[in-house]
Amino acid sequence: MTQTIIWTIAIITGLGIILAVVLYLVAKKFKVEEDPRIDEVEKVMPGANCGGCGFAGCRAFAQSCVEAPNLDNNYCPVGGNEVMKKVAAVLGMEVKEKTPMVAVVRCNGTCANRPKTNEYGGYQSCRVKAQLYTGDTGCAYGCLGCGDCVSVCQFGALSMDPETGLPVVDEEKCTACGACVKACPHNIIELRNKGRRNMRVYVSCVNHDKGGVAKKACKAACIGCGLCAKTCPFGAITVENNVAYIDYEKCRMCKKCVAVCPTGAIHAVNFPVPKVAPEKPAAEKPAVEKPVAEKPAAPAAAPKAPVIDAAMEAKLAAMDPEKAEKVRKALLAKAAKAAEADKPSAAPAKEENPEAAKPAEEKKVEPAAPAAETKKE
Fold first, then answer.
1. Which is more confidently placed, 308 or 99?
2. Are 76 and 84 in contact (CB under 8 A)?
3. Residue 220: which CATH number?
4. Helix boundaries (H) for the chain
């Protein structure tokens, strides 16, 4: 019994040694030479293995960089320009800097803008829901709200807003890996340039229905009216299949399209809010005394003709002295009454007392008698 155990151990040990030698010889014979730079490039990679670069993982991307003649077609969205500079330093190549990108959700279909028409009770997955039917709202192109984009994001950059029912992108965490873009069955998520100081202008709608149908399904849908395309001075906006699209390469962020959009489908993100200066209380202006216009002096009264002129004096001198004296007194009394009548009265002249006017007229007639007598004499 002991000999059997010993022989069994010896045979197994011998077979193991023989097979190990065979494997060693085969490995030496068919050894594949690998560029040591692949390991060096892999070390500077972020190690996310997200697939945003288009390869299965960071090692596959490193191998592609080593084998490529240049780095124009290779870019790590997670590491960005800093990682690509390190890769270029390892490989002794030059790399062009690329504009940072960020995921953008192009849907305005909030709970307020796009009311539900039915209730979905199936498996909570956007892909499954899209295979079953168009969705639980009137829009067949908008967000389905099951959060597939959130579940595939490895960086925690996406979350569902319970108030709007739409995914929200955290720009600080987003690496533009594109995983959410691939996961969305309605293709409402797009990678766009972050823009200068993170400012962007884009059409937040992908509805291809005609204007009336789109507006009925969602209050903030793009109706394809083309006002934005006509207003844009840089030719950055095109309207195809009843929906507008802004080319971020041509857009100069003038925001003229935002002002003319009738439904508010165009969004301007991260623009500074214009400061409104507080209204200052109007300063009280010092009272300026208006110069009093000087009234023109009244024209000097024309000198009155003498009551008794030279001709009358000659006649009086020819008369009897007593009669002449009577006529002289009558003429002076007549002149005095005429002067009193010419003076302006304090109250406006009104014919309130017609009886008072009659005596005045009678008095005016009385002095005429002496004058007539004078003529006869």
1. 99
2. yes
3. 3.30.70.20
4. 2-29, 37-44, 58-67, 80-91, 126-132, 148-152, 179-183, 211-217, 227-231, 256-260, 310-318, 321-342, 354-365, 368-376
Q: Are 330 and 371 in contact (CB under 8 A)?
A: yes
The amino acid occupying position 119 is E
CB neighbourhood size of 93 (10 A): 15
Sorted by sequence, the CB contacts under 8 Å of residue 83 that are 6+ apart come out as 44, 45, 46, 76
Residue whose token pair is 């067949």: 140
Confirm whether 356 is domain-assigned.
Answer: no
Give the whole-angstrom CA distance, residue 6 versus residue 132: 68
Number of domains in the chain: 2
Q: Is 50 exceeded by the pLDDT of residue 377?
A: no
Please report how the helices 58-67 and 80-91 are oriented relative to each other, as an axis angle in degrees rounded to 10: 50
H-state helical runs in 210-255: 211-217, 227-231
Is residue 298 in a domain? no
Kindly state the tokens that stand for 173: 């965490």
Q: Which tokens is 184 given? A: 């969305």
Largest CA distance in the chain: 205
- Which residue, 64, 58, 106, is CA-closest to 78? 58
Mind giving me the DSSP string for 118-134? S---S-S-HHHHHHH-S
Q: For residue 49, what are the domain limits?
A: 34-98
Q: Tell me, yes or no, whether 73 and 168 share the same domain.
A: no
d(CA 276, CA 197): 22
Q: Provide the token pair at 185.
A: 């069955």
Single residue among 217, 244, 269 that ends a domain in this structure: 269
pLDDT tens sequence across 289-310: 555 555 555 454 444 555 566 6
Q: Do residue 191 and residue 71 come from a single domain?
A: no
pLDDT for 324: 75
